[in-house]
């Protein structure tokens, strides 16, 4: 069912045939920086709090990026009027917290079973998302992890699993995202005499394109046990705070995110599905032909946190982060010195 | 005596005619010869032997010189006195057995001039065996890709594309049984053991009325019948697989057998690779063939052939793929009289494919397949020397298992059993070959095919005007067992006309319509072994293809050189394409992912072939296009906004060269060179970030191309000496695939790199020179 397995396999067989590794070369592609399209990313959920919408534009391919030559950032879209609506006509206007990032003030709160949409006024243009309903989300019964050695394509690491009960209704779909905190410990700079001194910091890590997406097509109504949702690498023996979120999403959102993840994992084989234009649920009110990218979703979210202890594997981590000295906060992006909530 | 004959003749009424008929066989092995020409010198007219070596000529009484000819064989000339119905069986001697002769001599045939057939390629097995191979595996599918009009989407991709058609539009018949998957090891090798194959014919157009069911081509592969003179065998030991074939008579010449097998040993190779994932993978394939033939008497012969192939690829982590064909064919040839030949064939094929998932707490087994049963009767009637009439009927029964999902162990997966397709595909056909004059041949045929999809089953009805989706189902119709769910039918006219300008030149014209009721559902660039096959149904209409072709054929220097130019134009309807990101496996509402479209393909194929001399081979150039249009009413139902777009196998420029040079009587050198335009690909016009994921933004499908492809392969063969006291003859084959090690792009793709951005990469496979050494033997 997973064709990318086949693909990797094929590529490997081929490698075997020719007994040379590295048949994958960078290939420089340049595209014209023509009309940049609007990209909308945000959602409302059953979770209390503020909701975020970010507005950016597409970026052309210009050069092959490298560490020295970082890629251009997506341009942020400022000065838009973003409004959240519910099915009863209630609304709340977002404010622009920083360029391209729009937040609500927590006045409207998402409720399971209700429909929501947003409108964006950008100069003369007005965009609207299709109303989406927040679906009920199952409770995560338990979440646990276990160490696994590398097998085939599956890397070594701490595999995180969840157990939950799928709703009896057909057509449930789920998106799993996680974020976490990795703790680091550094020693003072060489020359500083302090035998027991050490610095601790906690750097955030997120699932990025390693999110899991699944539906109940083959498992409707069942109690799902040991559903694998993440792999935490064994880079360090220090604990890892893992915060998992189970998103209950509707069919359209499932299709959208499936295309996003499929295409981000395209391995280039002829056994890949052809790449597709991904059209989300947002349209220009006056010009249906304008291509608008992105999605404004309405999701039911269930959260759970666990601490993954990584010192009981009986051996040292296979790889290490670069050795750093002194305050570790500047070394790891976004790191904080205080315990994150739930540590 | 002559005078006596003519006096006798003058007393016979004008209408009296007699038939000369018989079988043309190969002298060395006793095999029937297909397509040998039988030419009546006095009348400047001729015929060819049918698929069972049989010919029949009805002539006015007289004395005639009959010339029996086939490429690579010594010509036989027989003087025949026709004053009664006459049996004349002829054996032709293979020129290859003339060991003293270095140069390939023998008469060449002018069949490409005299026959009305066009767009047909027959390659001799001995030519295929001379072609450079990948890892020493003589491969019929790779070999036909060296012919004009045949292409592939990529290195090692399964199947082949003919004149801008999909892989599933090719009917591949192995001794009469259809083969649904022609690939071993995901497409690197084909499932046909070359040692048991006797004849390879590819119909790209002008397809006769007895064939149907696929719209692009027919690849007709015939097994040997087995040597009726003596026990003999052949085989080979290669780096990836080894094979063996044994044939001979049982008791007497009347009964012969041939048995062949081939197996891979990929595992030891996988161990050599510095990649744990590959080292721990398990891969094997094998195929086995068997045929027994019995000639009861001059009027009846019975043939039974069987075929079995299997592939398994197990990834160490969690998934195993498995697929295989099993087929059997029983055939009865009967001669009612000298003018009426009958062939009755019963064929059975069981093609299965599946995936086994072994991931902890998620174990499953998924299986699908096709059970195919076919009964075909075909008569050939030879009323006179100018007419040949073929007619018959064809009934196919399909049971298509669209997929069952079974949980294993404590897996939470629910069992799922998609409803089966039960159907009948029937056809009546008649084809008349009329030699209007010594210059004009007309072949006119018609096939009427009808398809019936039967219950039991459920058919979903969808809201009209909106894209079909699970949420737009309005009603479900239930059908009882064997109740008619849907029917499709139609005429399929076939025509081929030949005008012989002189003995060296001819122009030809052909038209054919084909209808296809069976479809391979695949939305990847190359097909995979686990793509599902599906019959036409309420929502999935048949594919219909019309092809018009014209050609000019010219032979030179006593048929030493054959040249041809063919132009074709194809119009296709009912073509299937897929919604973006469609999910096709185990989908009970598959029709919600499918889109119907139209297609067209056109091209020009030029060929220069040299048949005689120290150097033999060909050069061909093809310019071809293949386009699709999917213009539904909503955005979701359109591809490329409803504008025509190139198919994945739209490859305009193709240059193919094959040559074989005989150095000494036991050594020869062969080479081939291929150049083609890179296949179409969809490039992004920009990238963007969403949900922490960087993704490329693709706009219109297949508007760019990967870099051009070219490759050269060589092979050097040295046959061992034949010693008079020993039958054993060994030969060494040294082959180098991709001699100059070009890293041809297999694909260009985009994946996130350096944190966020999708970077672009070129993937090449078989990207360096790949030598192999194979030992072949025969006795």
Measured between the Cα atoms of the first and last residue of chain A, the distance is 38 Å
Task: Note the run of SSEs of chain A as H and E.
Answer: HEEEEEEEEEEEEEEEEEHEE
**Mean pLDDT rating of chain B:** 87
Using the alpha-carbon principal axes, give the shape of chain B.
globular
Most extensive interface, residues per chain? Answer: A-B, 100 and 103 residues
Instruction: Bin the helical content of chain B.
Output: under 10%
How many beta-strand runs of chain A? Answer: 19
Taking the sheet with the most strands of chain A, its summary is:
9 strands, mixed
Strand proportion of chain A: 35-45%
Structural class of chain A: mainly beta
User: Could you say which overall geometry of chain A the principal axes of the C-alpha atoms support?
Assistant: globular
Count of spatially separate domains of chain A: 2
Report the major sheet of chain B: 22 strands, antiparallel, barrel
Total number of helices of chain A: 2
Radius of gyration of chain B, in angstroms, nearest whole number: 27 Å
CA-atom Rg of chain A in angstroms: 23 Å
How would you describe this structure to a colleague?
With 343 residues, chain A is mainly β. Chain A has 2 helices and 19 strands. Chain A has helices at residues 3-18, 251-264, and strands at residues 24-26, 38-45, 52-57, 81-86, 91-93, 95-98, 101-103, 115-122, 125-129, 132-133, 140-148, 157-165, 173-186, 199-206, 212-215, 223-232, 240-249, 282-284, 293-308. The two termini of chain A are 38 Å apart. Chain B is mostly beta strands and 779 residues long. Helices cover 4% and strands 57% of the residues of chain B. Chain B contains 6 helices and 51 strands. Chain B has a 22-stranded antiparallel beta barrel. Chain B has a 5-stranded mixed sheet with strand order 9-16-17-12-13. In chain B, a hairpin with a 4-residue loop joins strand 2 and strand 3. The longest helix of chain B has 10 residues, at 2-11.
């Amino acid at each position: 069912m997973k064709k990318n397995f086949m693909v990797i396999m094929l590529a490997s067989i081929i490698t075997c045939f020719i007994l040379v590794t590295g048949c994958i070369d960078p290939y420089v592609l340049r595209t014209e920086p023509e009309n940049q399209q609007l990209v909308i990313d945000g959602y409302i959920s059953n979770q209390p709090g503020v909701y975020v919408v970010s507005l950016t534009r597409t970026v052309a391919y210009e050069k092959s990026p490298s560490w020295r030559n970082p890629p251009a950032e997506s341009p942020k879209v400022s000065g838009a009027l973003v409004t959240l609506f519910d099915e009863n006509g209630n609304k709340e206007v977002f404010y622009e917290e920083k360029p391209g990032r729009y937040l609500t003030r927590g006045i409207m709160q998402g409720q399971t079973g209700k429909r929501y949409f947003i409108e964006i006024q950008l100069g003369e243009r007005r965009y609207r998302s299709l109303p989406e309903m927040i679906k009920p989300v199952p409770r995560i019964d338990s979440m646990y992890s276990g160490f696994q050695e590398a097998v085939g394509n599956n890397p070594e690491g701490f595999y995180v699993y969840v157990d939950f009960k799928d709703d009896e209704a057909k057509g449930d779909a789920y998106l799993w995202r996680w974020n976490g905190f990795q703790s680091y410990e550094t020693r003072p700079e060489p020359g500083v005499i302090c035998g027991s001194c050490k610095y601790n910091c906690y750097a955030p890590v997120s699932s990025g394109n390693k999110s899991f997406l699944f539906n109940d097509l083959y498992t409707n109504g069942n109690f799902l046990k040991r559903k694998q949702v993440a792999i935490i690498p064994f880079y360090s023996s220090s604990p890892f705070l893992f915060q998992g979120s189970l998103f209950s999403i509707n069919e359209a959102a499932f299709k959208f995110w499936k295309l996003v993840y499929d295409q981000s994992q395209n391995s280039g084989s002829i056994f890949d599905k052809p790449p597709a234009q991904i059209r989300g649920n947002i349209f220009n009110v006056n010009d249906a032909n304008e291509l608008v990218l992105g999605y404004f979703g309405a999701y039911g979210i269930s959260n759970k946190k666990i601490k993954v202890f990584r010192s009981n594997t009986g051996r040292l981590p296979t790889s290490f982060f670069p050795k750093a000295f002194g305050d570790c906060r500047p070394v790891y992006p976004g790191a904080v010195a205080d315990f994150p909530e739930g540590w | 005596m002559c005078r006596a004959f003519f006096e006798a003749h003058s007393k016979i009424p004008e209408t009296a005619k007699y038939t000369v008929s018989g079988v043309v066989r190969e002298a060395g092995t006793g095999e029937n010869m297909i397509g040998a020409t039988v030419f009546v010198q006095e009348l400047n007219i001729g015929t060819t032997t049918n698929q069972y070596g049989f010919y029949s000529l009805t002539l006015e009484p007289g004395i005639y010189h009959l010339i029996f000819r086939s490429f690579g064989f010594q010509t036989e000339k027989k003087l025949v006195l026709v004053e009664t119905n006459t049996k004349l069986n002829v054996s032709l001697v293979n020129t290859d057995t003339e060991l003293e002769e270095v140069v390939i001599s023998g008469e060449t045939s002018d069949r490409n001039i005299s026959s009305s057939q066009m767009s047909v390629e027959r390659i001799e097995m001995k030519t295929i065996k001379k072609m450079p191979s990948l890892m020493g595996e003589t491969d019929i599918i790779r070999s036909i890709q060296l012919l004009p009009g045949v292409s592939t989407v990529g290195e090692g991709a399964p199947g082949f594309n003919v004149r801008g058609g999909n892989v599933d539009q090719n009917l591949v018949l192995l001794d009469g049984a259809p083969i649904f998957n022609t690939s071993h090891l995901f497409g690197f090798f084909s499932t046909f053991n070359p040692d048991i194959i006797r004849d390879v014919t590819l119909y790209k157009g002008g397809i006769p009325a007895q064939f149907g069911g696929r719209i692009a081509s027919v690849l007709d592969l015939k097994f040997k019948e087995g040597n009726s003179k003596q026990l003999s065998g052949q085989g080979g030991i290669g780096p990836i697989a080894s094979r063996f074939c044994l044939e001979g008579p049982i008791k007497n010449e009347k009964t012969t057998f041939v048995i062949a097998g081939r197996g891979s040993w990929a595992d030891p190779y996988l161990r050599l690779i510095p990649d744990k994932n590959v080292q721990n993978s398990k891969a094997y394939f094998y195929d086995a063939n068997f045929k027994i033939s019995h000639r009861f008497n001059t009027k009846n012969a019975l043939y039974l052939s069987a075929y079995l192939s299997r592939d398994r690829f197990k990834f160490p982590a969690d998934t195993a793929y498995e697929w295989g064909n099993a087929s059997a064919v029983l055939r009865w040839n009967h001669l009612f009289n000298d003018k009426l030949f009958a062939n009755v064939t019963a064929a059975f094929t069981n093609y299965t494919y599946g995936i086994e998932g072994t991931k902890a707490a998620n174990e499953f087994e998924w299986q699908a397949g096709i059970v195919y049963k076919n009964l075909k009767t075909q008569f050939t009637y030879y009323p006179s020397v100018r007419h040949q009439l073929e007619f018959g009927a064809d009934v196919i029964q399909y049971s298509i298992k669209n997929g069952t999902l079974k949980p294993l162990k404590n897996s939470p997966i629910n069992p799922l059993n998609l409803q089966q397709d039960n159907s009948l595909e029937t056809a009546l056909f008649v084809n008349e070959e009329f030699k209007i004059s010594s210059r004009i041949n007309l072949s006119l045929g018609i096939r009427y095919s009808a398809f019936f999809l039967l219950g039991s089953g459920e058919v979903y009805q969808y809201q009209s005007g909106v894209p079909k989706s699970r949420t737009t189902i309005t009603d479900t119709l239930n059908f009882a067992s064997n109740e008619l769910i849907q029917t499709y039918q139609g005429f399929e006219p076939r025509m081929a006309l030949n005008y012989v300008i002189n003995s060296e030149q001819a122009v030809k014209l052909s038209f054919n319509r084909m209808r296809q009721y069976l479809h391979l559902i695949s939305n990847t660039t190359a097909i995979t072994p686990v793509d599902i096959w599906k019959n036409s149904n309420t929502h999935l209409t048949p594919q219909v293809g019309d092809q018009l072709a014209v050609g000019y054929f010219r032979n030179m220097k006593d048929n030493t050189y054959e040249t041809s130019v063919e132009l074709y134009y194809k119009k296709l309807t009912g073509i299937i394409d897929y919604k973006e990101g469609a999910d096709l496996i185990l989908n009970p509402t598959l029709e919600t992912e499918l889109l119907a479209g139209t297609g067209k393909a056109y091209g020009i194929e030029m060929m220069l072939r040299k048949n005689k001399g120290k150097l033999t081979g060909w050069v061909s150039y093809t310019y071809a296009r293949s386009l699709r249009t999917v213009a539904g009413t909503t955005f979701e139902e359109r591809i490329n906004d409803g504008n025509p777009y190139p198919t994945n196998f739209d490859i305009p420029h193709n240059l193919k060269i094959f040559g074989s040079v005989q150095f000494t009587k036991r050594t020869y050198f062969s080479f081939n060179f291929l150049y083609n335009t890179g296949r179409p690909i969809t490039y992004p016009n920009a990238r963007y970030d969403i949900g922490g994921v960087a993704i490329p933004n693709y706009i219109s499908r297949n508007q760019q191309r990967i870099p051009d492809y070219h490759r050269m392969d060589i092979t050097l063969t040295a046959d061992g000496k034949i010693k008079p006291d020993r039958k054993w003859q060994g030969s060494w084959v040294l082959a180098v695939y991709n001699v100059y090690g070009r890293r041809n792009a297999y694909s260009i793709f985009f994946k996130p790199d350096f944190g966020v951005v999708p970077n672009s990469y070129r993937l090449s496979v078989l990207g360096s020179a790949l030598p192999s050494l194979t030992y072949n033997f025969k006795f």
